[in-house]
């Protein structure tokens, strides 16, 4: 049982690491984009993406005026110099101080256009999206962020993106399903996914989804049902709608190991990308269904969270990752996918992982070293503790947090504990802050102090600590289906 719990956590952590990077990438560029604001009167940089027969993209930059260099952003471990080739214009692609730069090919000259061919190669960095990745036998997902140049102050240049798909194909961006996308800009002022390929699987007012047709029917049905249920639930519970029709993009790798249900997820504003792999998707099981629902619930929570952005790059990941887990757990119970016992076991698993990970060190130290497991486990623990002092739990806490962040230009650590103090009292918020920021000799005792300190007027923390007892999944068949690492 313990081995299974460890195995399951490992799987979940690995899957979530992708989501973490995606979200972090979004928040970093999002804050910069806001800072730049409306003072930029320049004509946008026009970027034309045309899908080629060989799966590559032809990318044409048309600049409002000639420049000597154009910063494309961090070099991503040499990804662009391997996969991108300049095929026209007077520019060359070079690496300069760890950044990819399009530079005028001849000294003391400028360029106004550049044409590149981008091969569909993997970016070997787990926290970064692919520029173009396959989705289904005849489709691809483009991430616009890698094409949008960055100005000297770190903000992205204003860009206008056009996409031409291959023969008889479609382009999907939020609610738009068109044969050719022209002069497009995300309403979120943020990089986005754009799909090219077969028509969407689902095209409704509340959801436009592209689901790899090779996914077994039961899993395809289950994931679209889970996304619809979560969108409906969160829209109702938060009480406000997303600013765009959400997209769900689901890719599938059927050649995974037998018994494994691998789920990876990314979230951008109003967009979720999911990757499924492994043999456990071949036939319905409680195990695989639960992995789908918890994963979709986590990513859907993220797209509501993206209504607020960190005020700067220093807002720790545990806030939104733990918040997404806490919101997801609440949703799983209220939708009826989990009973209270399953939710309690989920929280207990997060708590015991957090206690194990943080003992003898601190959450900021683990996050600084890239330890994503603690962002989820301790983040969920802190978020659930904070939420239990709120009369409307995790969703009420986050709704208040988001509104406050929107009113004051973004969120940070102080705002999180200010909301906690409003409902659980100053002492409670202080103990919570200690768990989140200070080195922990005996983290279980800190958690006990947090629970004792709550003086919140509403529900308080009457439920007391939850005993750590076993894995999230208790279904016997599911355990038998899952191999060991
Ligand atoms: Zn996440």
Short description:
The protein has 13 helices and 19 strands. The protein is an alpha+beta fold and 485 residues long.
Structure report:
The protein is of the alpha+beta class and 485 residues long. It has 2 domains: 2-33 and 212-453, Neutral Protease Domain 2 (Neutral Protease, domain 2), CATH 1.10.390; 42-199, Immunoglobulin-like. It is 41% helix and 22% strand. The protein has helices spanning 2-36, 79-83, 217-238, 286-305, 317-335, 340-358, 363-368, 372-388, 393-407, 413-424, 426-437, 443-453, 476-481, and strands at 45-51, 57-67, 69-74, 84-89, 91-96, 99-104, 111-118, 132-134, 140-143, 159-164, 170-173, 176-178, 181-184, 193-197, 202-203, 208-211, 247-253, 262-268, 271-277. The chain has a 6-stranded mixed sheet. Helix 9 packs across helix 10 (413-424). Bound molecules: zinc ion. Zinc ion binds at residues 16, 19-20, 23, 298, 302, 321, 324.
Helix/strand layout:
Blueprint: H1 2-36, E1 45-51, E2 57-67, E3 69-74, H2 79-83, E4 84-89, E5 91-96, E6 99-104, E7 111-118, E8 132-134, E9 140-143, E10 159-164, E11 170-173, E12 176-178, E13 181-184, E14 193-197, E15 202-203, E16 208-211, H3 217-238, E17 247-253, E18 262-268, E19 271-277, H4 286-305, H5 317-335, H6 340-358, H7 363-368, H8 372-388, H9 393-407, H10 413-424, H11 426-437, H12 443-453, H13 476-481
Parallel strand pairs: 1-10, 16-17, 17-19
Antiparallel strand pairs: 1-2, 2-7, 3-6, 4-7, 5-6, 8-9, 9-14, 10-13, 11-12, 11-14, 15-16, 18-19
Helix pairs in contact: 3-4, 4-5, 5-6, 5-8, 5-9, 6-8, 8-9, 8-11, 9-10, 10-11, 11-12
Residues 16, 19-20, 23, 298, 302, 321, 324 line the site of zinc ion (ZN).
